[in-house]
Specification:
The chain has two helices and three strands. It is of the alpha+beta class and 105 residues long. The chain has a domain of 69 residues: Nucleoid-associated protein YbaB-like domain (Ybab, Chain: A, 2-Layer Sandwich).
Length: 105
Amino acid sequence: MDMKQILQMGQQMQARMGAIQEELDGREITASAGGGMVSATVDGRGEVQNLKIDPSVVDPGDVEMLEDLVLAAVSEAQKKAREAYEAEMKKVSGGLPFPLKIPGL
């Protein structure tokens, strides 16, 4: 392979990665905690878009439990978004680790 071919491949990969990022940004990923009592929806970047709390879990005497459930739901949704992103990027990069780490650079 010459340098021109390598650059063309890099540009193609970059274009595909941009398209995948755009598609992931439009995705909604939902996770729940407490048997579905709290659910969080994030976009492909992992940013929270929606949060639903079942009224039966709102107990003024146990706010800590509600906080834990919200945190668990948001964390799980963000984890799923990160995994979806990594899986898509792995497809584009042909299984190479992402981000690419080139020794000496």
